[in-house]
Amino acid sequence: MSLKDIRTSAYELRDLFTSTPPQVSFEFFPPKNAEMEEKLWESVTKLAPLKPSFVSVTYGAGGSTRERTHQTVKRIIHETPIKPAAHLTCVAASRAEVDQVIRDYWDAGVRHIVALRGDPPNGAKEYTPHPDGYTYSSDLVEGIKKIADFEISVAAFPEKHPASKDFAQDIDALKRKIDAGATRAITQYFFDVDVFLRYHEMVRSHGITIPILPGLLPVGNVTQLIKFSAMCGASIPDWLLSLFEGLDEDPTTRAMVAATVCAEQCRLLRKEGIDNIHFYTLNRSELTFAICRLLGINQSVC
Ligand code: FAD
Question: What is the pTM for the complete model shown?
Answer without folding.
Answer: 0.95
